[in-house]
Amino acid sequence: MSRQSFWNATRILCAVALAISAQQTNQQTKQQTKQQPEGDLGFTDTPILPGQKWHVHDPDRPHARLVTPGREPGAPPSDAIVLFDGKDLSQWEQRGRGADRGKMVPTQWKVENGYFEIAPRTGELFTRAKFGDCQLHIEWAAPAEVRGSSQSRGNSGVLLMSRYEIQVLDSYDNLTYADGQAAALYGQWPPLVNPARKPGEWQSYDIVFEAPRFEGERLVRPAFATVFFNGVMVHHRKEILGTMVYRRVATYTAHGPEEPLSLQDHGYPVRFRNVWIRRLAGYDQPER
Questions:
Q1: Phi and psi for 135 in degrees, rounded to 5?
Q2: Contact 98/245 with Cβ under 8 angstroms?
């Protein structure tokens, strides 16, 4: 074979090799394209996340459902259940007394000017619906006229599942025991700070509550609460020790996975407005 023929044969072999390599690369690219959606919508060749069944950037992982936020801070989002819209207490009821004992009856608390007010000594208010894990927004105001001191100033309470109390109290320049002031997990944990406004001014609680879990009569996970008081965090996923109780250590008694929310009548005309709640579910809920 002449030198010229050798170089010609070499060029042909190189061209064939390059063509084969290009074809293999093209096939691999097609296979990878089949494995992942176009447009960087996820990957299936990435590691599995620890403790999960999903790949990093998994294209098959359920997307979060759309929720429209409130038009202004404190307004209910689109998936909230509005418990008081400024007009009526149709979402609430009370335990009957006297001839109505043992029954749930329409509430006697007063509604006016976009708020409702405790009718002292008529009894607690209960939601008709039941809730477990939830996000709750509620605004309240202690009486503007200051009377009494310590626990005798604008006392009420938000009882999650009708058991686990976030204290309501006029705590502006009002000394009381620490685990009984406004936003305390009553009788258990005082708030981290006291951002209370003056009596008569509107205050707000934003509460994220994780309900306890039971297996039969046995507690398998306690309740937890995260609380923002007037926009200031005062509890961060704090463990709740049990059902609210006075002058004793709280304990748990088994109950259902959902129970009514209640507001306490402690004999003071505390006002409430803009009350809404969201049921909370876990991650990776099926897409609708």
A1: -115, 125
A2: no
The model's pLDDT over 65-117, given as tens digits with 9 standing for 90+, comes to 999 999 999 999 999 999 999 999 999 999 988 778 888 888 999 999 999 99
Eight-state DSSP code of residue 177:
-
Residue-wise pLDDT tens digits, 9-55: 556 555 545 555 556 555 555 555 445 455 688 999 999 999 999 99
- Residues 208 and 225: their CA atoms lie apart, in Å, by 6
Distance of alpha carbon 84 from alpha carbon 276, whole angstroms: 7
181 and 188 Cβ atoms separated by less than 8 Å? no
Could you confirm whether domain 81-279 is CATH 1.10.940.10? Answer: no
Tell me if residue 278 falls in helix, strand or coil.
Answer: strand
* Cα 133 to Cα 48, 136, 147, 166, 240, distances in angstroms: 29, 10, 36, 15, 14
- State residue 6 phi and psi, 5-degree precision: -60, -45
What's the full length of the chain, in residues?
A: 288
Give start-end residues of each CATH 2.60.120.560 domain in the chain: 81-279
Cβ neighbour number for residue 265 with a 10 Å cutoff = 21
For range 260-265, the mean pLDDT: 98
The tens digit of pLDDT for each residue in 205-255 reads 999 999 999 999 999 999 999 999 999 999 999 999 999 999 999 999 999
Tell me if 108 sits within 8 A of 120, measured CB to CB.
no
Q: Are 240 and 223 in contact (CB under 8 A)?
A: yes
pTM: 0.85
Q: Residue 265 carries which side chain, given as an amino acid letter? A: D
* Residues 169, 224, 285: CA angle, nearest 5 degrees: 125
